């Protein structure tokens, strides 16, 4: 793993998501197309919390999964190194949430490439808060690098 911390805007140079749907703050370690560790701090002002258990907000599990997918896309994108490449989450398996995430928590997620083939990469993902595992999932991500003729259409 590298020991160089990556923050915005270097992250958004690799993945297409932007606020308010960007769920990666910092990439702590990255070995492109092999393994990446990144963080996301759940802020009190996060708009996704407003209606999710008002008065006792909980960060939605689907957004924890989206955070994992964005870290996976960074792992893949830092290898492909094409800003026009499109990444899509196509399958979620074995997804388990073990503890809730609330405002003020920082997620630390490690994704590991299990397999790469053709236009797909499968990832094993683990998310932690305060060194406690809070979620795991196996994700399949597809990627499409547009040919030069695709960009002209």
Automatic annotation (TrEMBL):
Q: Name one GO molecular function term.
A: lyase activity
- Domain of life, per UniProt, equals Bacteria
Top enzyme category = lyase
Look up the EC number in the record and give it.
Answer: 4.2.1.-
Keyword Lyase appears in the UniProt entry: yes
Where would one find the signal peptide in this protein?
none
Could you list this entry's UniProt keywords, alphabetically sorted: Lyase
TM stretches of this protein: none
Q: Name one Pfam family in it.
A: FabA
The name on file for this protein is 3-hydroxymyristoyl/3-hydroxydecanoyl-(Acyl carrier protein) dehydratase
Source organism (scientific name): Gynuella sunshinyii YC6258
């Amino acid at each position: 793993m590298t020991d160089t911390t990556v923050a915005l805007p270097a992250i958004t140079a690799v993945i297409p998501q932007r606020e308010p749907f960007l769920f990666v703050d910092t990439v702590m370690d990255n070995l492109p197309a092999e393994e990446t560790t990144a963080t996301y701090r759940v802020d009190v002002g996060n708009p996704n919390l407003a209606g999710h258990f008002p008065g006792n907000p909980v960060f939605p599990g689907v957004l924890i999964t989206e955070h994992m997918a964005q870290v996976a896309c960074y792992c893949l994108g830092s290898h492909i190194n094409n800003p026009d490449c499109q990444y899509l989450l196509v399958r979620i398996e074995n997804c388990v949430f073990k503890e809730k995430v609330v405002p003020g928590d920082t997620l630390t997620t490690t994704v590991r490439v299990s397999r790469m083939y053709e236009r797909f990469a499968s990832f094993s993902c683990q998310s932690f808060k305060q060194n406690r595992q809070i979620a795991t999932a196996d994700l399949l991500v597809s990627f499409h690098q547009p040919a030069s003729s695709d960009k002209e259409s």
